[in-house]
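On clarity, I found the account of how folds are encoded harder to follow than it need be. What matters is that the chain and its backbone geometry are given together, residue for residue. For the editor and my fellow referees, an illustration may be useful. For illustration, here is how one protein appears when written out as sequence plus structure tokens:

___
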Amino acid sequence: MGITKKVSVLAVGLGLVTLSACGSSDGDGGGSGGGSKAVTLVSHNSWAVSKDVVAAFEKQSGFELKVLEDGDAGQAVNKAILTKDNPQGDVFFGVDNTLLSRALDNGLFQPYEAKGSDRILPGYRADEDKHRVTPVDSGDVCVNYDKAWFAEKGLTPPKTLDDLIEPEYKDLLVVENASTSSPGLGFLLGTAAQYGDEGWQDYWKKLRANGVKVVDGWEQAYNEEFSGSAGGKQAKADRPLVVSYASSPPVEVIYADPRPDTAPTGVAEGTCFRQVEYAGLLENAKNPEGGKALLDFLLTERFQEDMPLNMFVYPVLENAQVPEEFAKFGPPAKDPRTMDPEKIAANRDQWVKSWTSLVLK
């Protein structure tokens, strides 16, 4: 997803600080007995977890956790597919519902039903017949807006996708490239869910005519082009609308010094598309037992409740608690658009190809 989020490193893309050293598995599939053995997690750049949570996993499992961050979510998935015969690690985290079929169709993961899977909220489950992936988190790709900019101009912020093609919002929106960026692809799928298989192209023609700006990835869009972000203010950015996440506003509060009472950015709730991120045991993992232990740990309340203020995503485990400040400033969208994974699989590549020809050429 990757769901990427943090002020100047708003990931999510997730990036956030990685608290485990990069490295590779030592290939020993042993358990918690004599000496530490490494299990390697391959992820996009948004992976982040508290030190005490890593320590709890290592103590509980007997495995040392190593993390290899491998770029944006799309890049990381593609590289994992290319290296699947000799993988860089044991578990891959960060393939979301927009790219899930690509990973499954290429045989990236081997089956494993993680402990605690029965406690995953039903709406986030996938591949339940084979258990090749484990749902870990969710988040909503949404247009964010700069509250101060709109207040200064006396202009009401947009609320829906339809609003974005109105003349008053001309030259205000920056989006990510759907072929290179996870939120960019999520936003494209959101428009397809809203306007249908054919109607989304007409919508993008109007969006292009209304001055939408396209950049390669989330970090450039949010931190360099968006006037409402901490990074955008420093860069004197001039776009008050950006495709980001429903969970981006709390980042602008939590990492601000001093902290504001309200978030300086808002979310246009009628623009949101829900992403779910998954993890899986890599097909040729050198340490499958360590990988299984890690997948089990990702579904513990200890890890699930640590995610919101580190990766700025929501847990998928029932009864997992969300910190008050995260829930206050970054509630999930009330009615996000969704799309069946089968439909994404059948149309994604052609939609991206058509989008590229329509918007970039």
User: Anything to note?
Assistant: The first strand starts at residue 37 and ends at 43. Strands lie at 37-43, 63-69, 91-96, 109-110, 134-146, 173-176, 213-215, 241-245, 265-282, 314-315. The chain is about 35% helix and 20% strand. Residues 2-35 have pLDDT under 50 and may be disordered.
